[in-house]
Amino acid sequence: MAARVLRIKVKPHARAASLVQQIDGSWLASVRAPPVDGKANAELVALVADHFGCPKRAVSIRAGASGRFKLVEIENAN
Question: Which domains does the chain have, with CATH numbers?
Answer without folding.
Answer: 4-74 (3.30.1200.10)
